[in-house]
Design goal:
The complex is a heterodimer of chains A (281) and B (262). Chain A is α/β, with parallel strands linked by helices. Helix content of chain A is 42%, strand content 18%. Chain A has an eight-stranded parallel barrel, surrounded by four helices. In chain A, strand 5 and strand 6 form a beta hairpin. Chain B is of the alpha+beta class. Chain B is 55% helix and 13% strand. Chain B is built from twelve helices and six strands. In chain B, the strands form two sheets. Chain B has a three-stranded antiparallel beta sheet. A two-stranded antiparallel sheet of chain B has the order 2-6. In chain B, strand 4 and strand 5 form a beta hairpin. Chain B is elongated, with a radius of gyration of 25 Å. Chain B starts with a helix and ends with a strand. The chains are: A alpha/beta (281), B alpha+beta (262). Chains A and B meet through helix 2, strand 5, strand 6, helix 4 and strand 8 of A and helix 1, strand 1 and helix 3 of B.
């Protein structure tokens, strides 16, 4: 069950805009999630702050370049660097995305969707097992936002995630905002997505903001979390129990206190949802 | 369509100059209730370009300051078409930008602009280079007298050395200060500029020809302190050791040097 997994509490994405305030203020943040690629360097300010913050807070590594579903061979040099960084900062877990971000010849630097077919499933599951063999730990994979779907889909996204977790032993990073964004764009019920995932595989939740263009929604991480996503988050926690929760912001960075206030909101809404769950139990 | 073929078609869509009118690929996709396939594909197409442009705008802010947003965007777009990203980290996207500028623009405009791009890339390289083991004044104080003549030093790993034939530093400085564009012109003789990182802060400075020559002797060619003093004696006579120590102290305080590996 989810409760048997380490519950880190409520965390923030570590961004260089806030390095100094984190060290000076020791804010009440339970943990930080770091973008792995930002620290695959040999020296400098980022590593300096990472080491200092690692001494004070639990960390989780979150990558954007694994391209687990890409048409290319797995990049074992990249994986070696990820493993070395993990040895350096001892993250609670290592995550990336269920997507592809590199094409045949070039890096595309986006979290591109996969067709949810049997071919994709067995291809990705095999690669997940290879990655886990290298990292010597379960890989945690996040559902991505998407703006097109393949007509060839043979599974719903949640069915694919279920099957992938079963076949490969990977765990899931459930991005509640991404579910909401994709649900709006593709016209499915976000709660159907979430309640059909295997609770025991969900290791972490993401919360973030997006831009609503009326006819569609774009996952931008540059706004506060919106009310429907907060509601979905509470529903999720009430359903699966305590899961480590991370608030992301990747652009239009507000004053640090605003992010801390938003994290407090996550903490309060999370506690409320979990208290309601306890009463029902 | 097999997975690989579908992904290659998606990649081709992203790399096309304009949002694809490739209805063969679009026909493999479905949209949502109010998000049609063409709009969905355009979101991915625009995001790919915007993300790369953002990185180049950040890494080459002085080049952008010189060219203005529109001309910079056109140059950056041409660059990523010519040299699509090949490294998983966007940190390396601009590695060939200076070279591309020389290839892409006429020499008269390209040479000073490429030099400015090289200067900005030097800061990027210095920013996250290995720390090395910078010498300190305390290290120097502890050096026994008999060890001084044979002292050999090397650059710390972050040091980047550039020959500047144009007033690139003045343009870079004006860009950082958001000042008026100072105009571009050649400088004679060319300046040697060092860019490096000291205590997590990137620094730069130009060298007078005599100091540049001394650093060449001591660092680039690996000469020892006694050889530096001998070289300086030609100009400074009995004041050569004092001049050598003065410079060495400055270089050490700047965090430029480490012991040369045996």
């Amino acid at each position: 069950m989810a409760t048997s997994l380490p519950f880190l509490g409520y965390g923030l994405g570590l961004r260089n805009e806030y390095y100094e305030q984190i060290l000076e203020q020791s804010p009440a943040v339970d943990w930080f999630e770091v973008i792995s690629e930002n620290y695959l360097v040999q020296g400098g300010k980022a590593l300096y702050y990472l080491d200092a913050i690692a001494e004070r807070y639990p960390l989780v590594m979150h990558g954007v370049s694994l391209s687990i579903g890409g048409p290319h061979a797995l990049d074992f040099d990249y994986l070696k660097q990820i493993k070395q960084l993990a040895e350096r900062i001892q993250p609670a877990w290592v995550s990336d995305h269920l997507c592809w971000s590199r094409g045949n010849a070039h890096q595309l630097h986006d979290l591109l969707p996969l067709p949810y077919t049997e071919e994709s499933l067995y291809y990705v599951a095999g690669r997940v097992r290879q990655v886990q063999d290298v990292l010597q730990r379960p890989l945690v994979l996040e559902n991505v936002s998407s703006y097109v779907r393949a007509k060839a889909d043979e599974f719903c996204e949640w069915e694919f995630l279920n099957a992938l977790a079963h076949l490969s032993g990977c765990q899931l990073l459930l991005d509640v905002n991404n579910v909401y964004v994709s649900a709006r764009n593709h016209g499915f019920d976000p709660w159907t997505f979430i309640c059909n995932l295997p609770p025991q595989s969900i290791r972490q939740l993401h919360l973030a903001g997006h831009r609503d263009y009326g006819d569609y929604v774009v996952d931008t991480h540059d706004h506060p979390v919106c009310d429907p996503v907060w509601a979905l988050y509470q529903q999720t926690l009430a359903h699966i129990g305590p899961v480590s929760t991370l608030l992301e912001r990747d652009d239009h960075f507000p004053p640090f206190q605003e992010l801390l206030d938003e994290l407090t909101k996550a903490r309060q809404l999370g506690a409320s949802a979990l208290a309601g769950r306890a009463l029902c139990a | 369509m097999r997975l690989t073929d579908w992904q290659l078609a998606f990649e081709a869509h992203l790399l096309n100059d304009a949002p694809a009118q490739d209805h063969g690929f679009a026909a493999t996709l479905r949209g949502g209730p109010s998000l049609d396939v063409d709009t969905g594909l355009a979101i991915y197409h625009n995001a790919y370009r915007a993300r790369l442009l953002d990185v180049l705008r950040h890494d080459f802010s002085a080049v952008r300051y010189w060219l203005g947003d529109d001309e910079f965007a056109a140059l950056a777009g041409a660059y990523v078409r010519r040299y699509p990203s090949e490294h998983y980290s966007l940190r390396w996207l601009g590695e060939r930008f200076a070279t591309f500028i020389l290839e892409h623009l006429a020499q008269e405009h390209g040479a000073p602009l490429a030099e400015l791009a090289r200067l900005e890339w030097a800061f990027t390289l210095a920013f996250d280079a290995p720390h090395g083991e910078p010498l300190t004044l305390a290290d120097m104080a502890e050096l026994p007298p008999q060890a001084w003549p044979g002292l050999q030093v090397a650059w710390v790993p972050s040091v980047q050395q550039l020959g500047c034939h144009f007033n690139s530093l003045a343009i870079w400085r004006a860009a950082k200060d958001n000042g008026d564009f100072p105009g571009s012109h050649a400088v004679e003789p060319a300046q040697t500029c060092l860019v490096w990182r000291h205590e997590q802060v990137c620094r730069y400075r130009t060298l007078e020809p005599a100091e540049a020559s001394a650093l060449t002797t001591m660092v680039t060619t690996g000469g020892c302190f006694a050889e530096l003093c001998a070289q300086l004696a030609v100009t400074y006579a009995e004041g050569a050791p004092l001049q050598a120590v003065t410079w060495l102290k400055q270089w050490v305080q700047d965090g430029l040097l480490q012991y040369r590996a045996a």
